[in-house]
Amino acid sequence: MGRGPLAIACIRGTGGETGRSGRGRADCAGPEAAGAPALTSYNLLAILPALLVLVSVLGVVGTSVKVCWSSNREQAVETVHRLWPTELLPGELAQVLPTPAHFEQASGLVTREMVADAVTCGDEVEEHVKAVRAYVRAGFDEVHVGQIGPDQEVFFEAYRELVLPVLGR
Questions:
Q1: How confident is the model at residue 9 (pLDDT cuts 50, 70, 90)?
Q2: Helix, strand and coil percent figures for the chain, each rounded to 5
Q3: Are 55 and 46 in contact (CB under 8 A)?
Q4: Global confidence as pTM
């Protein structure tokens, strides 16, 4: 959108067995992320490129993408399927379910194949780069990357050493 270099922040969540990431904090970042405000409103984040125009009046347009970095792709897919299946609930289902019990029931609709097709899992650097660049091409100024699962330190090291340098080129 022409407002300066892209800020990419990796968000540290709990990553525990609950699958809830919380708000977390930025631990590794691209060139401008260190100075970027940490108050991007999570309830106003655009999740689809089509929503970009709706939130661009805020000045900085951000989004988040969830990934699962692991040397074993199948294990990563299993981790996402076990901890965060609600990410892939179809249609408006996630907006209308009233209780956690309903979310648990609806999560049965999500298959491992759906996770493998929709969430970046594994340790292929180019796949992670591609996931972030899709939002960059759509015009987002900030892309927050969150690790699903317990391997938080491995994720941060991989993004710091492998993914962010490629994105910075």
A1: low
A2: 50, 15, 35
A3: yes
A4: 0.68
